[in-house]
Amino acid sequence: MEPTATTAPTLPRSIEEIRGEFPILVRQIHGQPLAYLDNGATSQKPLAVIDSLDRYWREQNANVHRGVHTLSEEATALYEDARRVLAGRLGADRRELVFVRNATEALNLVAYSWGRSNLSAGDRVVVTEMEHHSNVVPWYQVTQEKGAHLDWAPITGEGRLDLDALASLLERGPKLVCVAHVSNVLGTINPVAEIARMAHEAGALLVVDGAQAGPKLELDMAELGADFYAITAHKMYGPTGIGALFGRRELLEEMPPFIGGGSMIRKVSKELITWADLPAKFEGGTPAIGEAIGFGAAVRWLEELGLPAVHAAEAELTAYALERIAEVPGLTVFGPPAGDDRGGIVSFAMEGVHAHDISEILDRHGIAVRAGHHCAQVLMQRLGVPSTTRASLAVYNTRDEVDQLIDGLLDVRRVFAL
Amino acid sequence: MDELYRDQILEHYKRPRHLGRLDDYDLEFEDSNPFCGDEQHVFLKLDDQGRVSEVSFEGQGCAISTAATSLLTDELEGMTREELLALPKEFVLDLLGIDISATRMKCAMLGLKVVKGASLGKPADWEDEGEQGDPAAAGIF
């Protein structure tokens, strides 16, 4: 998207004020100020979200499903309001939004409900080399079950999706393409709208893993063109235990349910069971009510900051981080260079030191990062490394924290006498 | 002196003992720590009395897992399979001589797990699993 103004949108409050809304950020780790750079794993929570959860459990708790008493009506209204807020953020109809446990569950729902009814022997499903296991394993499972094939769209040397190679795979006529919006290792922001166009032209549906995109990007489902989009609350300043699947209405109407049980039925008798309307058809059992309300609060909180400003601030900090990390000798940094298609996720490998040891020493400096394969073993094989260390940014991270990270990495070299 | 990355640890990490594959071996096993990507493959040759005569290992891993396995392989000569299986986790921890946190315990124990797997011919249990918690202590931190 071309910027319409010469200056980037700015956040409505200072970073210091924003940080002040996150109580955990005052913690000291081993006597050092906490530099929480593990946001790809989970984000911290602002008071707005903590307070909404707290208030629900203290004052508003009841089961939903249209009980007639006051507390139940209140809880139902709050729960459905959270759904409406999320629908607003995504530009979707509320009937197209199914609350699930997390992005993994959302993707499994599609594999189970859509995949098992629509894939047959010989059909093809395309995944990419950069996918998180949650956007690989369900497709592996369903294609194995059905005798269908899994094709792997490769990445380029810079860590972008190879669109030419994808085009070749699309010529084989796959039924489904599965792609991450933002890579949890490389930080690559994939051109979802373009990929959707390519997939649809080839007669395939597109399912998108938006777990890392939720906190970073404006997400208009119509603009993006995804048929299914998975999102999770805990990576976007909300609680764990709640996420959502966006599915185009025509698709969800046709799909059989995922979890069977209470709330997702219309009529049950010994002879016949019929399903509830959308989205209830896919929400069997008592949902994570408090968590859904917390999710709504998180969406509101982010909307109030403004996603364009959040994205611009992160892009600027990412550029700073990439510039500074280039000063550390012996490091290989993965993913595209700073730019529009590069989110605030920086994975790297240090020659002679294992990711685990890097993380251990960084922890002594108060820095939280993640070491390992990041649930992306195929990507690790493609990058030729057993593991990486990953620093991932959120809206409350600062240049000082990036500086703290660089100092920590130089200390790693000192400890290992490199 | 660094409490964790002592000279001995770094020495065994940078120049591990018994590194490589044995051309001729009787027992071998490969295992990994799924959380971090540490992988190890151990090879054991036994003499006529069924005692370890030669040992080697290959793999990629962090300083703790590499050093632990290197130190461990130095001690295995002359042991029977039964003696290998009876080695407690303290054996490795004493060799390391440093405090290992809960997060790094699997790094320290991987080598022992692989050695036991070689003796069993199938995956051994992690040394720190199967422990039960006390409900009275739940949620108290």
CATH superfamily of the largest domain in chain A: Type I PLP-dependent aspartate aminotransferase-like (Major domain)
Question: Element order, helices and strands of chain B?
Answer: HEEEHHHH
* Total E-strand runs of chain B: 3
The main sheet of chain A orders its strands as 4-10-9-8-7-5-6
> Which regions of chain B are unreliable across 5 or more consecutive residues at pLDDT < 50?
none
Number of strands of chain A: 17
* Biggest sheet descriptor of chain A: 7 strands, mixed
Supply the CATH class of the largest domain in chain A. Alpha Beta
State the helicity of chain A in percent bands: 25-40%
Whole-Å distance between the termini of chain B?
A: 30 Å
| Mean pLDDT, all residues of chain A | 96
Q: Mind summarizing the main beta sheet of chain B?
A: 3 strands, antiparallel
Overview of the structural elements:
- The complex is a heterodimer of chains A (418) and B (141).
- Chain A has 418 residues and is α/β, with parallel strands linked by helices.
- Chain A folds into two domains: 15-30 and 308-415, Aspartate Aminotransferase, domain 1 (Alpha-Beta Complex), CATH 3.90.1150; 50-304, Type I PLP-dependent aspartate aminotransferase-like (Major domain) (Aspartate Aminotransferase, domain 2, 3-Layer(aba) Sandwich), CATH 3.40.640.10.
- In chain A, 39% of the residues lie in helices and 16% in strands.
- Chain A has helices at residues 15-20, 47-60, 70-90, 103-118, 137-146, 163-170, 192-201, 221-224, 249-254, 289-305, 307-325, 355-364, 377-383, 399-415, and strands spanning 28-29, 32-33, 35-36, 97-100, 124-128, 149-153, 176-180, 205-209, 228-232, 243-247, 265-268, 273-275, 331-333, 345-350, 367-368, 370-372, 388-392.
- A seven-stranded mixed sheet of chain A has the order 4-10-9-8-7-5-6, sandwiched between helices.
- In chain A, helix 5 (137-146) links the parallel strand 5 and strand 6.
- In chain A, helix 4 runs parallel beside helix 5 and helix 11 packs parallel to helix 14 (399-415).
- The longest helix of chain A has 21 residues, at 70-90.
- The mean pLDDT of chain A is 96.
- The mean pLDDT of chain B is 91.
- Chain B is globular.
- Chain B has one domain: Sufe protein. Chain: A, CATH 3.90.1010.
- The two termini of chain B are 30 Å apart.
- With 141 residues, chain B is α+β, with helices and mostly antiparallel strands.
- A three-stranded antiparallel sheet of chain B has the order 1-2-3, with helices on one face.
- In chain B, helix 1 packs across helix 2 (63-73), helix 2 crosses helix 4 and helix 2 packs across helix 5 (105-120).
- At the A-B interface, helix 12 of A face loops of B.
